[in-house]
Amino acid sequence: MPFTPYLSFDGDCADAFDFYKSVFGGEFTYRSTFADAPPDMGVSDEDKDKIMHVSLMVDDAVLMGSDVPKSVGERPTPANSISVTFTPKSKAEADAIFTRLAGDGGQETMPMQDTFWGAYFGMCKDKYGVSWMLDFIES
Question: What is the pTM of this model?
């Protein structure tokens, strides 16, 4: 899978992706809100109608995004609203890449872990401030 841009929004992800669909065409292959998350995720009532994840397929490309819940802290701005998603071929590769990206001046923002949506997933920033998401799903 190629590198995929992942866009973060401060509450207007649904509107933005409806707009992108009107511009580029394509189909939503996944669209969920934080209301779909398990209760132990601790999402506030004010964030439950926000987008937890959306994928817009346009030909052979995918654009992904989500709203950032208020409880997460750092609000998305034009300077920090894009992450790069990479899909490793194994958990071992995910761990190795994550360690290299987050190490040497980088920062772990979510450790690599098995998730409720079936992926082995983690997030970090590299030493240059670029946000990364690693997303391995066994087939």
Answer: 0.74
- Please write the tens of the pLDDT for every residue from 54-101: 999 998 889 999 999 887 777 887 777 889 899 889 999 999 999 999
- Model confidence pLDDT, tens digit, residues 12-27: 999 999 989 998 899 9
Identify the CATH homologous superfamily for domain 87-139: 2,3-Dihydroxybiphenyl 1,2-Dioxygenase, domain 1 (3.10.180.10)
Alpha-carbon gap, residue 129 to 131, rounded angstroms: 6
CB 112 within 8 A of CB 96: no
* Structural fold of domain 1-77: 2,3-Dihydroxybiphenyl 1,2-Dioxygenase; domain 1 (3.10.180)
Distance CA 73, CA 8 (A): 13
